[in-house]
């Protein structure tokens, strides 16, 4: 099991859509953690190029994250929302696709990496077996005990437990409007529930921006911590300047479907306030519909009309090179695990 051989129990969250780069992935692996490369929104060909680039930067193990395909949404569910947006913004054409799932899976069977991780669902046992046959571990991101059991039944080697605090998209297997009536469990709650329900190794994810927070997750039985938001400010990350500039402020976060049609946590801004209430559960259709307006906002330096994904603890993150950040977080976690916590928790 790869988790048994990490020098540092820190896993890089994949962060699709720009922040994930070969340089960031390689830097985390080189520092003794485990780098994960995001393949979400990329074609299989682009994914192959990024894997090759990562291999030129590190001889160590790294992983690749895939988005499990969902099902198309009835256009009647999202057409009114897109029409309302079009009165204020340039919008794109909503469409459904599988994010090149089958071709990416073929790629990763032909050119294996150490670990493949998955969000938004769980592949079939046959698909997992194909990865196992080439020596690849398969980790599934889960948000509930039911999802954990389904992942275990499919042959998952480890579970990434995503708490409500996490930035970016909720990894739930199914995203429905009815889900909004149920509070998603926080990370510490989810870890306790999963530890009671499964013996699979757990990787904790959600709001882990300090070493003390990582220590808390490890104390509850996680084998490692998956960290995303804290790496967004590293120079190796491909974080857009508008996004990067917003992360250090004490802006609150919120969950919204307004940008992509799937619940995601980001820094609260005007677009969220104006459009979250009527945003439909329609992913990836809304993702494609809002792509032009988000691109225009980034180009204009306008933080009020772009998705600024971030976890709840974003304001205590540090601007450090990735390797230094891994070392700082690991040292702080070791100290917190070895001594009783007292007084205020500092940053990295």
Automatic annotation (TrEMBL):
<keyword id="KW-0503">Monooxygenase</keyword>
<keyword id="KW-0285">Flavoprotein</keyword>
<protein>
    <recommendedName>
        <fullName>Propionate 3-nitronate monooxygenase</fullName>
    </recommendedName>
</protein>
<dbReference type="GO" id="GO:0018580">
    <property type="term" value="F:nitronate monooxygenase activity"/>
</dbReference>
<keyword id="KW-0560">Oxidoreductase</keyword>
<comment type="similarity">
    <text>Belongs to the nitronate monooxygenase family. NMO class I subfamily.</text>
</comment>
<dbReference type="InterPro" id="IPR013785">
    <property type="entry name" value="Aldolase_TIM"/>
</dbReference>
<keyword id="KW-0288">FMN</keyword>
<dbReference type="GO" id="GO:0009636">
    <property type="term" value="P:response to toxic substance"/>
</dbReference>
<dbReference type="InterPro" id="IPR004136">
    <property type="entry name" value="NMO"/>
</dbReference>
<dbReference type="Pfam" id="PF03060">
    <property type="entry name" value="NMO"/>
</dbReference>
<keyword id="KW-0216">Detoxification</keyword>
């Amino acid at each position: 099991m790869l988790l048994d051989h990490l020098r540092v129990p820190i896993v890089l969250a994949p962060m699709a859509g720009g922040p994930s780069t070969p340089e960031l992935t390689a830097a985390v692996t080189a520092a003794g953690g485990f780098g994960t490369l995001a393949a979400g929104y990329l074609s299989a060909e682009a994914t192959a190029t990024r894997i090759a680039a990562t291999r030129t930067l590190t001889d160590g193990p790294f992983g690749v994250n895939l988005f499990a395909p969902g099902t198309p949404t009835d256009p009647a569910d999202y057409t009114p929302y897109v029409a309302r947006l079009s009165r204020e913004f340039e919008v794109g054409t909503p469409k459904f696709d599988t994010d090149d799932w089958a071709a990416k899976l073929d790629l990763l069977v032909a050119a294996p990496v150490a670990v493949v991780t998955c969000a938004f669902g769980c592949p079939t046992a046959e698909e997992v077996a194909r990865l196992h046959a080439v020596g690849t571990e398969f980790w599934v991101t889960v948000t509930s005990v039911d999802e954990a059991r389904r992942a275990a039944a499919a042959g998952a080697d480890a579970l990434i437990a995503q708490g409500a605090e996490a930035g970016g998209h909720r990894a739930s297997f199914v995203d429905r409007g009815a889900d909004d009536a149920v509070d998603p469990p926080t990370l510490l709650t989810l870890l306790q529930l999963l530890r009671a329900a499964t013996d699979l190794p757990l990787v904790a994810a959600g709001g882990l921006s300090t070493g003390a927070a990582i220590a808390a997750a490890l104390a509850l039985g996680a084998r490692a911590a998956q960290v995303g938001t804290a790496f967004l400010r590293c120079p190796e990350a491909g974080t857009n300047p508008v996004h990067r500039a917003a992360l250090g402020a004490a802006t609150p976060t919120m969950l919204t479907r307004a940008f992509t049609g799937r619940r995601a946590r980001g820094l609260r801004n005007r677009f969220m306030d104006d459009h979250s209430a009527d945003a439909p559960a329609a992913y990836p259709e809304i993702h494609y519909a809002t792509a032009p307006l988000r691109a225009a906002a980034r180009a204009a330096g306008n933080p009020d009309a772009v998705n600024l994904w971030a976890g709840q603890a974003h304001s205590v993150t540090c601007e450090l090179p990735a390797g230094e950040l891994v070392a700082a977080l690991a040292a702080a976690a070791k100290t917190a695990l070895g001594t009783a916590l007292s007084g205020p928790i500092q940053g990295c």
